[in-house]
Amino acid sequence: MRYVLTDHQPPAPLFSEAEMQRRRDALRTELSRRDLSHVFVYGANRSGSAVPWLTGWPVTREALLIVGPREADDLLLVSFYNHVPQARRLSPVRVEWTGRNAIATALDRLEADGERPSRVGVVGPLPFWHYRALAGRVAEVVDLNPAHTAMRQVKSTEEVAALRKAAALTDAAVMALEQALHEGVTEHELVAEIERSYVAAGGMHHIHYLGVTAMDGPSICVPAQWPTDRRIRRGDVVTCEISVAVAPEYAGQLLRTFTVGAAPTPRYARLHAVAEEAFEAIRERLVPGTHARGLAEAGAVIEAAGLTAVDDLVHGFGGGYLPPVIAGPGRRAGAVPDLVLTAGMTVVVQPNVVTPDLTAGVQTGELLLVTEDGAQRLHDYPPGLRRVG
User: What pTM was estimated for this model as a whole?
Assistant: First the structure.
């Protein structure tokens, strides 16, 4: 069983030059197909997943990548002048400063080179003021976000290797949580132990959500996004959703449930039994050719048991929160995505089974790889409801 990587330092850079070239070439193919001259890829405040996917720069304050018809046309503009030196070390794409306005700088550079684009594509959460400036100087702006999402769904060999490393660090983080769980420790102290397990090994923060409540009078049915100073007590139940990354958007994901100093009550034992049944039913259908509606149908065992869910049952992962996103039975308002599974997709199966009054709930689930032979585990941390203390 592995929880910590043998080699604590992931390769630098994590992805080969050929892999990064493959990604930009895929975007260039889309440019040609749509008859677009350039695409502007935007990211801000570490949330621009397309920018690091194409350049290796994680994004700090703001970044704008210009991808053109030739490799020599590509340019990464990075805000905060003092961030430019490291961006140049990390990115295979030429790097310059954004100046006072990223869009204005990008358009000025293109026009200075004798190119006045008439139709450009956009990927990323471009703010309104940037869109207004862009639309004021080009005839048509085309949304390429759906195309980018499609490119991220099937993982390359290098991407799967990165996700395995992230899964190992996520395993270590959940083991650290298990070992730290005892009466008297606060949620903040638990988070500190979780982070300690992977930061020194080169892991990056993604999420570490905890739900802590008493089994005999529960008030929390799903992990919370922000920890509190509440102290762990005997008879508590602790749920977690933890993801550690080795590169932006390349994270593992584990969801587990623990009881502290006591066996699970009948209510929690039943909740977890139904969650395990739902997990297995969905996992068995993770084969190429399965339509997303088949995954939704497999999760029907939750409603059949008279229970519900707050979180999504399934979502793609590794490059963002990707399709297929299958909503839990408590909020099936929209249609099931029209998507068929393909080998190379990575998904999180995570039946968060809760009581109808939303006071008690459990977590179980993890990141899985779809292969020709079915679902393959990327994690080694054991499944099941676990008792500590």
Answer: 0.93
Residue 275 β-bridge partners: none
Tell me which residue range forms the domain holding 203. 157-388
Contact (Cβ atoms closer than 8 angstroms) between residue 197 and residue 55: no
In this structure, what CATH number is given to the domain that contains residue 62? 3.40.350.10
**Domain endpoint, select from 151, 185, 213:** 151
User: Is there a single domain that holds both residue 176 and residue 323?
Assistant: yes
Domain count, the chain: 2
Pair type for strands 140-143 and 119-123: parallel
Q: Is residue 6 part of a domain?
A: no
d(CA 215, CA 244): 28
Helix%, strand%, coil% for the chain, nearest 5: 35, 25, 40
How many angstroms separate the CA atoms of 16 and 19, rounded? 5
pLDDT tens digits, 2-60: 444 444 443 467 899 999 999 999 999 999 999 999 999 999 987 778 999 999 999 99
Look up residue 288 and give its two tokens. 């190429």
Taking each helix axis from N to C end, the angle separating 157-180 and 187-199, rounded to the nearest 10 degrees, works out to 140
Q: Are 123 and 144 in contact (CB under 8 A)?
A: yes
